[in-house]
Structures are given as C-alpha cells and as structure tokens.
Amino acid sequence: MKATKTIAIIGGGAAGYFCAINAAQWARHNGLSVDIRILESSGQVLKKVKISGGGRCNVTHHCFDVKLFCRNYPRGSRELLSPMLKFQAKDTVEWFRKAGVRLVAEADGRMFPDTNSSQTIVDCFLTLAKQHNIQLMPNSRVQAIEPLAPYQLKLHINNQASFTADAVLVATGSAPGGYHLAESVGHTITERAPSLFSFKIKDPLISGLQGLSFSEAALKLTLPGKQTFKQTGPVLITHWGLSGPAVLKLSAWAAREMKRAGYRGTLTVNWMGAETSGEVENRLKRMKEEHRKSYLKNVYPDDLPKRFWLNLLDQHSIDPEKQWSRISNRELAGIGRALTASPLAVSGQSRFKDEFVECGGVALSEIDFQTMESKVCPGLHFAGEILDVDGITGGFNFQNAWTTGWVAARHMVG
User: Fold this and answer.
1) Which of 164, 188, 192, 224 is deepest in the core (most CB within 10 A)?
2) Positive or negative, the Cα torsion across 158, 163, 164, 170?
3) pLDDT of 144-192, one tens digit each?
4) Alpha helices in 261-305 (DSSP H)
5) Inter-residue contact 267 to 258 (CB < 8 Å)
6) What percent of the chain has pLDDT over 90?
7) Closest Cα to residue 106, out of 165, 172, 60, 139?
8) 305 exposed, middle or buried (CB, 10 Å; 0-12, 13-18, 19+)?
9) CB 235 within 8 A of CB 213
10) CA separation for the pair 201, 268 (Å, rounded)
11) Strand ranges of the sheet holding 152-157, from the earlier edge strand across to the other edge
C-alpha cells in the first residue's frame, strides 16, 4: 500500500463534507490510504444545509439534461458543463439513495429528502464521515496557506498550530476568510454581490397585501442606464415588497448590476403573465357583457386575488360597488394597462437571514474544471460557492457544491 496521503478540507459545509466523504470512498475503492481532515472555523458544521429550504434542504433539481441544467447558472454555466458530465443531478439522486436517503421531486422540480427534513442530510453526512474516519477539527481557523513545494501545502491554524497536507480543498462558501486565503496564494476574487434576494418596494398598489401570490407573473427590471432584465414565474407580495421564485431569479441574473445601481430601479409587473394589455382589455370587455348586473367587487378575473383587485380599483378611483354595465371603456383600458404593466419603484433588497447566496469569488479562468485544482497553486483545490459560480433558486447551488466537491475528491486522492 502506498504512503498515506494527507487531505485537508477547509470548511465544514456542503461542498467540504461531500468532498471529504467522496475522497474517502474513492480511496477505499482503490485501496489507497488517506488521512482526511475537515477544518471548520466555527464550532458548528453544515449550518447552511441545516437551514436551507426552510429546514427541508432543497438538495438538487429534477433535470437530468446537463446542458439544460447548466442554463440555470448566471455565472459559471459554461465552466460547469464538463464537471456535470461527470457528476450531475441524476448522480446526486443515486448517491443519496445508496446512502439511504430518498430524494423526492416536487411539481416545480425541486428535490427534497422524503422526510422533508434537512436533518436527514446532515445526519447522512455526519454518519458517513464517522464511518470513514474523517477527522473533524472544529474551531480551527486557517490563517494562512504556505506552499512548500508542488503538492505540499502547510496550513497555519489559529496563529499557533500547523500541519502539512498533500492536497487542500477550500470550500468556505461566501465567508471572507476563504477569499483572503485564495488571494494570498495569487488568486483573483471577482466582484462580489448578493444574489437571490427579494425587492424592497413601497407602493399603494401592493400596500397591506402581504401574503398574496400570483402563479405566473412577468417581470421586467429596468436599471439606470436602461439595462433591462426579464423573468417570469410565481410572485409573492411581502411586508417589504415583492419576493417569490420570479423575483429571486431576476435578482440572480441582475446581481452585480443591481449592486452597482444601489438597488434602485423600476420593476414593471405583468400580473397576468403572458397576456398583453389588449388581450386583458378584451377579456374585461367580455366580462362586462356577461356580468352587466354584477358588482365589480364580486366579479373579477379569476386568476387575481380579490384583495389585489379591490386595491387596483381603489388606485384608479373606481367604485367597487359599481355594476359592470356602468364601467366605461376608458376605465377598462386603464385597468388593462395596470394589470399588464404596473411600474413599481425598487428601493432596496432584502435577504433571508443566514440563508443566502453571493455571486463573485475565485476567478473561473484560474481553475481547471477537469480537476477543480488551482492553476496558480498546485495541490490547492476549490469547490462550491467560493468560486464565481452561482445558480438560481431551486437546488442549483447545492448541485454546484456536490459536483465540484465530487470532482475535486477524485483528483485529490489521485
């Protein structure tokens, strides 16, 4: 048997644990001896896994076409193609099945453990790590990485201890410490910005309507300089503005541009989805003919929440007690325009406590995506969110962690 290879994983999160476990499994499969250590700066591991998906953990997305899957990454879609051809969502489902965890797809494609609890994933990782004798070193903050020779990296921990590893993975997510380590060995960190956030909007049209949702709205975000971004999907009115899958996706694609604009812009909302102003106006005219004796407050487009409809009438100074027969074509045209092109002023962004994603990170041109190894520091690897890779909501960011962690594991073991 060859000499034991020391592998250090900096970061006890999703990518770090997945890499460590897969490295141990690959080593055992090939009869190799490894000493794998996970260095976590805090006292708690897998924190994001625990809180993700509202405590359910959106493990991946039910799309097994790699090219289609990679289109869901505003940054990193091209680079992830090669790694995902080696380990994609279908492989993730099978990996967890072998580990005793069954993943179930929901109607929108998101996949969760059948227990609907993120603790299932946490327990799975902790159990496998223990079975493979992976050493966890909590409260171990790596202060510096010192290259001694090719594939010999000395890690300085807590300003006192140190040890030398043959291969090192940095999987620190969006924690500043990981970026500092990467920069210290010569890597470039691209512009960072929050991704997957909701919009702060104060407008009478949505005031007091928190909790109302629209199944298929069409959004157009216009930023200073006339930059525009579009997205469709479910939208949710919140206490502070708008959220929901369509807003989160829009925030991902426009992450850097919104940061540069100070999170100010105009969001034009078509509450009716794909319907045009003319189509909605004609629909309202048909309703007028069919419900002439009915009151506006009682009859309205069935895909609109009643409270929103009443708010809309109020904004246009239209009496909800008026019968449909008495509403003018001019008023119908105004409602049609409002339903398909409501301009709302965006005044800021809001993120979900600790459950958030950032774009930006280690420049992708400096990484070999066949191996996840650094091109500037031999023996150093990266996986997960520390890279300038981020996906939209729906399990894509975790899949980035699984895929890059798996590829790194194979190469680090050798």
Assistant:
1) 192
2) negative
3) 999 998 889 999 999 788 999 999 999 999 999 999 999 999 999 999 9
4) 277-290
5) no
6) 94
7) 60
8) middle
9) yes
10) 12
11) 142-149, 152-157, 161-165
**What would the pLDDT profile of 191-247 be if each residue is shown by its tens digit?**
999 999 999 999 999 999 999 999 999 999 999 988 999 999 999 999 999 999 999
For residues 199 and 223, is the Cβ–Cβ distance under 8 A?
A: no
Whole-angstrom Cα distance, residue 222 to residue 266?
Answer: 5
How confident is residue 356, by pLDDT bands cut at 50, 70 and 90?
Answer: confident
Domains of the chain in sequence order: 5-193+354-413 (3.50.50.60), 197-350 (no CATH)
In three-state secondary structure terms, 349 is strand
The two three-digit tokens of residue 165, written as one number: 């590893």
Query: What's the pTM value of the predicted model, to 2 decimals?
Result: 0.93
- Per residue in 44-94, pLDDT (tens digit) is 999 999 999 899 999 999 999 999 999 999 999 999 999 999 999 999 999
Instruction: Tell me how crowded residue 384 is: count the other CB atoms within 10 A of its CB.
Output: 32
Residues near 232 by beta carbon (within 8 Å), at least 6 away in sequence: 216, 217, 218, 219, 246, 273, 274
- Rounded-to-10 torsion of CA 261, 262, 263, 266: -50
